[in-house]
TrEMBL record:
Domain Asl1-like glycosyl hydrolase catalytic, first and last residues per copy: 167-398
Single Gene Ontology BP annotation: fungal-type cell wall polysaccharide metabolic process
InterPro entries: ASL1, Asl1_glyco_hydro_catalytic, GH
Any matching Pfam family: Glyco_hydro_cc
Organism from which the protein derives: Ophiocordyceps sinensis
PANTHER family membership: ALKALI-SENSITIVE LINKAGE PROTEIN 1, ASL1-LIKE GLYCOSYL HYDROLASE CATALYTIC DOMAIN-CONTAINING PROTEIN
Official protein name in the record: Asl1-like glycosyl hydrolase catalytic domain-containing protein
A GO cellular component entry from the record: fungal-type cell wall
Amino acid sequence: MLPKSLLALSAFAALAEQALALNSHRHLHRRQQLEKRAEHVQVLTVWTTVFVDAPQETEASPREFLANTRPAAEPAVPTIVPHDPVVYKDVNTAVRALKSAPGAPLASQTTLATSVKPSVQAISPSAGHGDKPAEPYAAAPSTQATTHRKSSEGSGSGAAVFSGKRGVAYNDAKLANSLSEKCDKCRWAYNWGSSPQGLDPKINFVPTLWGDQPRFTEHWKSDADKAVQNGAKAMFSFNEPDNAGQANMSPQQAAAAHARYMNPYSGKVLIGSPSITNSGQSGQGIQWLKSFMSECDNQQDKCRVDFCNVHWYSQPQYEDTLYKHLEDAHKACGGKPIWLTEFAPVNGAGQPAETPSFLKSVMPKLDGMSFVHAYAPFMCAEGKLMSASQLSDTGKVFASSP
C-alpha cells in the first residue's frame, strides 16, 4: 500500500502546485480589476485518487455519453400512407388537405382521391400547353346523354356562367386573394364552406353545403341567402358523398337533402350536384352519380341540378383517365355541364405533387372541352399553388397560362 500512498500524495502535490501557479498567473492579469471590487476568496479542494494497478477498461453506463459525442439516432419510424386515405384537416372550414394516390387504372375502376382534405384520397391530372385540345375531349354529348335524366331539372345547358373557367379552391382567404390578383382569368372561388371568410368581393364566391349534418345545415340558409345577395352565381351541393371519409351519404339520402336545401335557390343561381370522386369502386364515383340522378327522379320536387361537380386525382401518367372521367360524368349528368372542382397529380405515395408540367398539359385541354364550364386545381395553399405568400412554380403556370 505504501507505493499507492506515495503516488497519491505526489499527485495531490502536483495538482496543488499547478493551482497555485494558475492563481498567480491570473492575479497578474486581473490586479486592476480586483483592486476595484471587494475581495472574494473561494477555496476549492480537489481530491484525486489514482490507482495504478493493472490497467482496466471501463464501460460507460447505458445512459452516459462522452463529451463531444451524440447519442445514436432513434430508429426511424416509417410513414404509412393508407391506400384509400380520406381526411379533412377541418370539416367545419371544409379544409381538404391531401388525398391518397390512386393506383394504376384498372379495367373496372379508376382511382380516386386530400392529405387529405386540406387529407384525402388522391387523383390528379397532368397539364401542358397544346395549341388546341384533342378532339375527343371536346366531343359533343350524344342524344342518349342529352335525354339521360329529365328528372334532375335545371338549365343544364347554354353558355358558361363565367367569362373564364379558372377558379380558386382555398382555405386561407389571404392566399386566395393574393393568387387572384395575379390570375386575370380566375373568376370564382370556393372553400368547401358556406361563408367566404374574407375573400375579396371582386371574386365570385361559390358557397358549399358540405354535408347534411346540423353543423352544416343550421347556418346554410342564412349563408346562402347572403351569398346570393352579394352576387353569387352558383352553389355546390354535398362534398364527395360517395366517399366514406367525406360527406358519406347514400344517393337516396343525398337526393332528399339536395331537394330540401338546394331547390329553394333554383332560378337564383346555378346549382351543382354533389361532388364525386373518380373512384371505380362499387357504389362510388360515376356509379354513385348515376344512382343519385336516378333517385332525384323519385323526389316529389325532383332535384334542381344545373351542372355536375366532379373531382379527380391520379398519377401524372394516367392523365388520360381525367378526360374519360369528365366525359362519363357528362353523360351521367344528362348532358349538363361539368365543373371540375378538385384535381391534382399525385406521387407514388399518394400525396399531391407540385408538377407545373402537368398543368401545362391539362389546362389547354380543359379550356377546349366545351362541356367543362369551370375547373379549380387542388389547391391554393402553401406547397401547392402557393409558396409562402407568393405563387409557386405550379401557381405561376395556373395564373399566367393563356
